[in-house]
């Protein structure tokens, strides 16, 4: 992808909208790709992205059909409509790919991510971290006299918001699973 132009827009999320050189709005898309569960398949799918300069913001993969030997790859990427259409078309041409769904374009979808946060602190900082964790419904999965490990499940935005609040309280490490997503309804 070429350089991006930043233009002021009326987006409710930001004062700026990212646009590609053609003027198309660059958006985040969640793709669900059903693939053969074989050695090297993930490398080939990811190679398609890296070989063409597409960025992957999130990636999860797991077997979803043991008897049929199929795995589901969930990829979050960004691009204008032409780029997303090109990614989908290139994925669909791969022999090991059974299905490609753009969950963002197909309608409402449920997206969740799991994250672990290690927060170091003492005294009031610990108390404040615990209070925020309670508000976010984060679970304490490990505790020492000087740190906590919180587990949080939610949308990527919720994970980001919790991380932003924990940084000044002593956030030391984050581990994120990446997005898991399913379309809503039938």
UniProtKB/TrEMBL annotation:
One of its GO terms (molecular function) is acetolactate synthase regulator activity. Its EC number is 2.2.1.6. Pathway: Amino-acid biosynthesis; L-valine biosynthesis; L-valine from pyruvate: step 1/4; Amino-acid biosynthesis; L-isoleucine biosynthesis; L-isoleucine from 2-oxobutanoate: step 1/4. Keywords: Amino-acid biosynthesis, Branched-chain amino acid biosynthesis, Transferase. GO terms for biological process: isoleucine biosynthetic process; L-valine biosynthetic process. It catalyses: 2 pyruvate + H(+) = (2S)-2-acetolactate + CO2. One of its GO terms (cellular component) is cytosol. Belongs to the acetolactate synthase small subunit family. NCBIfam families: acolac_sm, PRK11895.1. Dimer of large and small chains. Catalyzes the conversion of 2 pyruvate molecules into acetolactate in the first common step of the biosynthetic pathway of the branched-amino acids such as leucine, isoleucine, and valine. This is Acetolactate synthase small subunit. It comes from Stagnihabitans tardus. The lineage of its organism: Bacteria, Pseudomonadati, Pseudomonadota, Alphaproteobacteria, Rhodobacterales.
């Amino acid at each position: 992808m070429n350089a991006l132009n930043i233009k002021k827009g009326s987006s409710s999320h930001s004062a700026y909208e990212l646009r590609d050189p053609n003027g198309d709005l660059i958006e985040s898309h969640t793709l669900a790709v059903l693939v053969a569960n074989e050695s090297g398949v993930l490398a080939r799918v990811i190679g398609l992205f890296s070989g063409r300069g597409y960025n992957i913001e999130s990636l999860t993969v797991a077997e979803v059909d043991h008897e049929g030997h199929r795995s589901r790859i969930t990829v979050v990427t960004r691009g204008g409509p032409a780029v997303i259409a090109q990614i989908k078309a290139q994925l669909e041409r791969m022999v090991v790919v059974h299905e490609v769904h753009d969950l963002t374009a197909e309608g409402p979808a449920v997206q969740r991510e799991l994250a672990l946060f290690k927060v170091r602190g003492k005294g009031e900082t610990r108390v404040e971290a615990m209070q925020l964790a309670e508000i976010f419904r984060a679970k304490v999965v490990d505790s020492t006299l000087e740190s906590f490990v919180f587990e949080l499940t939610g949308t990527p935005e919720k994970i980001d918001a919790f991380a932003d609040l924990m940084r000044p309280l002593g956030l030391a490490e984050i581990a994120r699973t990446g997005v898991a997503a399913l379309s809503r309804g039938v």
